[in-house]
Amino acid sequence: MERLQKLIAQAGIASRRGAEQLILDGEVTVNGKPVTELGTKADPEKDHIKVRGRLINPRIASAKAVYVLVNKPKGYLSSAADPEGRKLVTELVKGKGRLHPVGRLDYNSEGLIILTNDGKFTDRVASSKAVGKVYEVKVKGLPNRNAINKLRRGIQLDDGFKTAPAEIRELGSTDKNGWYEVTLFEGHNQQIRKMFDAIGYSVVKLRRTKIGDVSDPHLKTGQSRELTAEEVKKLLGA
User: Fold this and answer.
1) Do both 116 and 230 map to the same domain?
2) Which pLDDT value is given to residue 168?
């Protein structure tokens, strides 16, 4: 038994959020009966599941899990849909069916993000405190050691969120800009930008270079490749 929104997403009909809306709109039936309650479960091997009158059981049975690593450029939204019509990271991958991002990467940030059609993988990796994300960060000005140590220990942001301890390593800073490698084990919205804002230094460039053990310095901006079976296994194992 699986939640209907997961089965609909697995069939490639819509993202989980889109599937929830289909259910709320009365577009989904199970064994001929409309279902409008989120969280309802069904067994695709026994129950007849239809979306807008079309049986989706064959699509669920034939669905193949896809895991794609994308080097996201700036100016792309980490989402499968946007009412404002902005460019989507999912548009960078063609011919793999309906995919969704695992977690998020800010609109004005660049770097690695994973797209998949596997909801269980998404839930496991996006919420895991063991899958660190590594970023290269350029800030305006040169924070002193005390300020950086505050970020290492954890800091209260203006929105009230208290960050967990972060790993921060200084890279080759210039006379005007500090460069840092920051490793986070959580994913608060625009967290790194807010962290440096909290100590008085704005981020001017942010790039994610690693997700768990997955990195690819040869993957150019805007390009993508499928994750290897070993990479998927490591991410789930973490």
Assistant:
1) yes
2) 97
